[in-house]
Amino acid sequence: MVNGELVLESLTKSYDDQVAVDHLDLWVEAGEFFSILGPSGCGKSTTLKMIGGFVAPTSGRVFIDGKDVTDLPPNKRAVNTVFQNYALFPFLTVRQNVAFGLRRARVGKQELNRRVDEVLELVELSTLGHRRPSELSGGQQQRAALARALVLRPDVLLLDEPLSALDAKMRRQLQVELKELHRQVGTTFVYITHDQEEAMTMSDRIAVLQNGRLEQVDVPSAVYERPETPFVTQFMGISNMIRAGVDRAAEGWVARFANAEFAMRGSPPLGSSVDLSIRPERVRVSGAGSVGSLSGAIVDVSYLGAATHYLIELDANVTLQAAVPNDGVHHLRRMGEKVSVHLSPEDLRVVGEDQVAESPVDAFTKVSTDYADHVPVN
Amino acid sequence: MTNSKPKGVRFPRPLALLVWAYILWNLLPVVSAMAFSFNASRSRSEWHGFSTQWWSGTPLSLFDNEEYTSALTHSLELAAMTTVLSTVLGTLLALAVTRIRGIGRRPVNFILMIPIVTPELILAVGLYLSLTFIMVWPFSAIELGTTAQVVGQVTYTVGFVVVIIRGRIAVLGDGLEAAARDLGAGPIAALVLVLFRLLLPAVLVGAMISFAFSIDNFVITQYLSADSSTVSIPMYLYENARGGNATPALNALATVLVLSTLVVVALASLMYRWATRRESVESHITSTVALSA
After folding, report:
1. B185 vs A105: CB contact, 8 Å cut-off?
2. Is the residue at B42 inside a domain?
3. Which residue of B has its CA nearest to A87?
4. Which stretches make up the ABC transmembrane type-1 domain (chain B) (predicted)?
5. Does residue B119 form part of some domain?
6. Across A256-270, A279-293, A327-341, which has the greatest mean pLDDT?
């Protein structure tokens, strides 16, 4: 059986009158790659420090494999951390840095050398063991910090935005390496990041935090495609937010905006109006005059390489962002060009579950966050 | 560094002259005083040829005269004790001060600055009066002489050591200590294995400053002295430099003062460079998460 099940129970940290983390309940399965995602100041770092033992929670408990570790100091927890900016000891070589924890644990010389060699090989630093941290590149320092934490075979490995100091290309490469490393060692990874793309790339599941509160926990595709709160909708990539009127219908309901009506499925929202969201890649753009479409004009063009983002002002004074792939099928449109926009009702999502009495979508999300049924990807 | 000077921008000549004039003005008296310790005659202003007679060989030579050697050894003793004590005490105080949280923080920081901003004379007189007239422990336990002199010098220098080390602690942040704790080190081990090692450069600078202060200190050392056995080099020079028994041996004594300071400064800066070598990850240390305890 794999160790490393982590449970946070109503974890709270307040500084004076400021609440950094507010009754956070999380359950991380053993061996999972779990990301805690949120903007700066959302409490994700404080949460990590409470798991690592660097910050004492105001209330709530931390359990690792069922054992309450809330009151244990950092050195007594089977948890190791890859710090933001690595915190490598500048006066020690890479080897000595990696051996530091093993020496504290009084591991015999032979085993120590074997384990250091093993982990340096794992992170591909075997030939650089004699160097000092300042003689390594950013990516190498990052791997040294990983090796130093992993050599102790922690039940849970905490990673505090370990890639944030690297350039985009190196970051992409290390994301892949980290994922591969996770697959090899099978340790529970708890990964802190503010980068939603990074979280989606790497994680089995993502917890989105805002203002110290949990917004949503789910697999990446669910968090992206079925955000449960307005915050998650906005935070997970670009979203168009539309205010729409609500009409009852014999079956489902009708959303009214931009002088058009959309037949929606499910139970109608409670109010007379509702917030809808739609991803830019689901906004379909075609030439002016298409039947059954909204018409508008392009007011901004951003060429992003793989796709082009258009800002389209509809005649009814609603502005939408559309992402069109540069795949050779779609041609580049110019600023000011008149276009037709087509939106499918199934791509329109009601934002905020409190607006919906009982919708099938809601029920679905509940099932997927039911931990008992959840099976991690690996 | 010289390459970083932009081309075409010339160092203005009058300013260069000013720099040279300043250096000469500083060096000349010291160098000439040192040179006259090798004079072949008793004169300290007229050169009569080279000789080492004022250094050793005659009863009036620096190393053969009881008065000189006593002042010499006493000064070095005082400097050694002051350096060790103020460095150890200053380091511990700096650690304690940076760990104070809450309302005590500001007052303590302020109080630690008092010896630095107080005129030395006031501190010396105050200490002298306290040690002489207050019959309560610990004042009663400290007698004028070597003990009182060390206490006085440490009182003064420890503030500087605290300021220097506290600055370094602030630059380091808590990141590396937290990393040590994370890797299984207990609080003491993290302090010794990581923090002290990182503080070493600052400790060296603190030690150097303490030594330099102690070796040429006059006011405190004078006030808290007892008999002739507690006369230091500066005190001896002050008493005798203008009198009738002023010989080039005094120049030799002053030379020892200058050289010992130079040697200590050179040693400390060498060790500083050794301790901070390859420390370009400094920027990382600085920006490492400040963990709030």
Report:
1. no
2. no
3. B176
4. 72-268
5. yes
6. A327-341
